Amino acid sequence: MRIAVVGTGYVGLVAGTCFAEMGNHVTCVDIDEEKIARLKQGEIPIYEPGLSELVLSNHSHGRLDFSTTLVDAVADARVVFIAVGTPPGKDGSADLSAVFKVAADIGKAANGPKLIVDKSTVPVGTAARVKVLANEHSSHPIAVCSNPEFLKEGAAIDDFMKPDRVVIGAENAEDFELMDELYAPFVRNGAPILHMDPTSAEMTKYAANAMLATRISFMNEVARICDLVGADVSNVRRGIGSDARIGKPFLYPGIGYGGSCFPKDVKAIMATAKQNGYVFQILEAVEAVNQLQKGLMVEKVVDIFGEDLTGITIGLWGLAFKPRTDDMREAPAITICRELKARGAYIKACDPEALATGREAIGDHIDEYLEDMYDVADGCDAVIVCTEWNEYRNPDFDRLGGSMKRKLILDGRNILLERELQAHNFDRYGVGIPPILSSSKVKQ
Ligand SMILES: NC(=O)c1ccc[n+]([C@@H]2O[C@H](COP(=O)([O-])OP(=O)(O)OC[C@H]3O[C@@H](n4cnc5c(N)ncnc54)[C@H](O)[C@@H]3O)[C@@H](O)[C@H]2O)c1
User: Fold this and answer.
1) Average pLDDT estimate for 379-383
2) Mean per-residue pLDDT for 30-59?
3) Is 118 in the pocket of ligand 1 (CB under 6 A)?
4) In angstroms, what CA-CA distances link 375 with 87, 164, 315, 357, 399?
5) Where does residue 252 rank: exposed (0-12), middle (13-18), buried (19+ CB within 10 A)?
6) Residue 197: partners with Cβ closer than 8 Å, 6 or more residues away
7) How far apart are CA 227 and CA 232, in angstroms?
8) Which CATH architecture describes the domain 205-292?
9) Which of 69, 177, 202 is nearest to 115 (CA)?
10) 121 — phi, psi (to 5°)?
11) How far is the CA of 120 from the centre of ligand 1 (A)?
């Protein structure tokens, strides 16, 4: 099948590449000329494991192309995906200006019947509005369906290739058939393709992200209470996660959720509720807890060193909002650096993939951006683990102990091994787990 994907970001590039991998001819379109030029030269603008190899091989086989010219890509395609960004507007509702601009442009470019697929995360009713807009500008019939995307950054290729389910919201059998044909190669493992109306499909995406964000904030509150009563949240997590009614995923406490999806989608569904005369009370709490949680490591630093952090050097391991991505959108590290800097701390940081994007997002709130985690720790009063990259799980504690001013780690992701910390006389504060207090002495 010939496909166009408009918007070549984390979702558009992954979706387009995976469709090409299954033998389709795909043109990925973007208004970002530099991004398209880099892709044409085989340079991948984002970090996503496994993506580079797939892009290069499909591009070289002629199944995947990149363009800034929407008109040509749409003229060639039977199905046109919209995968542009839908950032939060001032009131928290999704800013749909890019989606609507693309919908009108597709209408103008249509040279025959087209199926537009909304893959961007969009509020309820958007597919209907896209349909009206596209048809206003077209003399050919344009159908629209909703096909929300559930991939996770860091595992995007795997998620897209082997989805738990595919949700399709369409209005007629022909559109369902076209979409089923497109997705058939991805569901050979038996994952369901769920057919529904576009409104329910749009709602499904927000409900999924809202539920996952709720689990995270719930566990972060449980962790805070564990801290207060001396319980260990890791045990509690295992205890409740083994209950089949609850399940294990998304029960890890930490320093708050970030990224391009949860924060904005929680806000957007709250805005949708409000516009329809309802207050989504649980999500108001979910969001408030998340804001509080982003400040947890700063609270701990202040408890230890006091409000004035002048002369204190803090190292950050990890900047991205989660491992295996370079995405800095709404990353807790941004809040942590701002708050520490405001109190006078000197900050050093590293991240295996997000140094460039981190610098863009945090700028001079970080004093030194470094490649190496040990260079970051060198001379520090404390290191904060912000992102649970695998390389931070088993550090060389002898080396760290020799170079840090004080053997103190604030483990925002609870990833360091207790016995190793104890064996090397490190102090460690985590999230909802009992502190380890073994040394606490500043070296002379
Ligand atoms: N990132 C994720 O993990 C994820 C997961 C599921 C769903 N989503 C949703 O998918 C959508 C895209 O997210 P993303 O993370 O890929 O965003 P992104 O910012 O990485 O990419 C969006 C791309 O759209 C391009 N664009 C904007 N206006 C355009 C226009 N008029 N014509 C052509 N291109 C245009 C931008 O230049 C950018 O390259 C959002 O609605 C998001 O909520 C994202």
Assistant:
1) 98
2) 97
3) no
4) 36, 41, 9, 20, 11
5) buried
6) 169, 170, 171
7) 8
8) 3-Layer(aba) Sandwich (3.40)
9) 177
10) -80, 115
11) 7
The contacts of residue 440 (CB under 8 Å, 6+ apart) are: 406, 408, 427
In terms of phi and psi (left: phi > 0; alpha: psi -120 to 50; beta: otherwise), the region of 414 is: left
9 lines ligand 1 (CB under 6 A): yes
Task: Considering the candidates 145, 261, 380, 386, report the single residue annotated as catalytic.
Answer: 261
Residue 10 CB–ligand 1 contact under 6 Å: yes
Query: Phi, psi at residue 408, to the nearest 5°?
Result: -135, 125
Closest residue CA from atom 27 of ligand 1? 84
User: Which of the four pLDDT bands, split at 50, 70 and 90, describes residue 439?
Assistant: low
Q: Are 84 and 260 in contact (CB under 8 A)?
A: no
Does 170 contact ligand 1 (Cβ within 6 A)? no
Kindly report, residue by residue over 102-112, the tens digit of the pLDDT.
999 999 999 99
**205-292 and 295-429 agree in CATH topology:** yes
380 CA from centroid of ligand 1 (Å): 38
| Cα–Cα distance, 100 to 120 (Å, whole number) | 11
Cβ–ligand 1 distance for 206 under 6 Å, the answer: no
| Full-model pTM | 0.94
* Domain 2-196 listed as CATH 1.10.150.120: no
For ligand 1, pick from 6, 8, 11 the residue to mutate: most ligand atoms within 8 Å of CB.
11
Q: Which two tokens stand for residue 133?
A: 């807009």
**Is 337 a known active-site residue?**
no
Instruction: Report the alpha-carbon distance of residue 271 to residue 44 in Å, rounded.
Output: 35
The CATH architecture one would assign to domain 295-429 is 3-Layer(aba) Sandwich (3.40)
Q: How does the average pLDDT of the chain come out, rounded?
A: 97
Closest ligand 1 atom to Cα of 122: 41
Determine the atom of ligand 1 nearest the C-alpha atom of 153.
3
- Ligand 1 within 6 A of CB of 204: no
CB of 44 closer than 6 A to ligand 1?
A: no
Atom of ligand 1 nearest to the CA of 148: 7
